[in-house]
Amino acid sequence: SSDLIFELSFDAYAKRMAGVEGEEVLLAAAKLATDLIVATYDEETLVYIGLIPPTLLADEAYIWMLTTEFGHRHPLLLARYARGFLDTALTKYRAIYGHCFEPKSAHWLRYLGAEFHTETQFKIRRG
Question: Which H/E stretch holds residue 62?
Answer without folding.
Answer: strand 60-67
